[in-house]
Amino acid sequence: MTRVYAILAGVAVIALLGVTYFLAQRGGADGDQFAQCRGGAVAGGEGAIGGPFTLVSETGETVTEEDVIDKPSLIYFGYTFCPDVCPIDNARNVAAVEMLEERGEDVKPVFITVDPERDTVEVMREFTDAFHPDLLGLTGSEEQVKAATTAYRAFSSKQDSDDPDYYLVDHSTFTYLTLPEHGFVEFFRRDDTAEQMADRVQCYLDAS
């Protein structure tokens, strides 16, 4: 009986290897040029994230997604009054961009507010200038910001507060990699380091 189980187990392993090989071959046939770079799967596929938006830049200009994603970009949604998470994440993103710059790559860091009520053009400019001269801050009307967050599946929720000027905003903390020719291609979590981000972004740049 033990021998029978061993034979069946061997057959199962061979079958599994065959299925794995078939799926790998099929994945290559689908033409995913970034397969070797991907760090995670997105429900609905990469095409389910990203899309048109109209916002206002930190210089007061109205911009669209075509203006913003004119080069490889790392997009993060947060707000300037965020006590800790947003400054840390933006600093990490900027560090990744600087590492890529040392490799000769030009990647744009982007910060889109989820708190347009307080994050005016002037506030956004002062915040981004403290991190990096190329960090682009974007704000807009409530409707414009909502459209952008919806396009990227970014979550945000204003907390109740007795003081209308002092409140916190719960929000998702993903950073999105976008490429001009492809749109959204990858996301990064908070536990990804600057080095890890730079290496994965480099993989996408090399494959594009």
Description:
The protein is of the alpha+beta class. The chain has 2 domains: 1-31; 46-207, Glutaredoxin. Helix content is 40%, strand content 19%. The chain contains 6 helices and 9 strands. A 7-stranded mixed sheet has the order 2-1-5-4-3-8-9. A two-stranded antiparallel sheet has the order 6-7. The radius of gyration is 21 Å and the shape is globular. It starts with a helix and ends with a helix. Residues 1-29 have low confidence and may be disordered.
Integer count of domains: 2
User: What is the CATH level 1 assignment of the largest domain?
Assistant: Alpha Beta
Report how far apart the termini are: 54 Å
In CATH, what is the homologous superfamily of the largest domain? Glutaredoxin
**Sequence of secondary-structure elements:** HEEHEHEHEHEEEEH
Estimated helix fraction: 25-40%
Biggest β-sheet description = 7 strands, mixed
Do you know the CATH topology of the largest domain?
A: Glutaredoxin
Query: If helices are DSSP runs of H or I spanning 4 or more residues, what is the number of helices?
Result: 6
Give the topology:
Blueprint: H1 2-29, E1 54-57, E2 62-64, H2 65-68, E3 73-78, H3 85-102, E4 108-113, H4 121-129, E5 136-139, H5 142-151, E6 156-158, E7 169-171, E8 175-179, E9 183-188, H6 194-207
Parallel strand pairs: 3-4, 4-5
Antiparallel strand pairs: 1-2, 1-5, 3-8, 6-7, 8-9
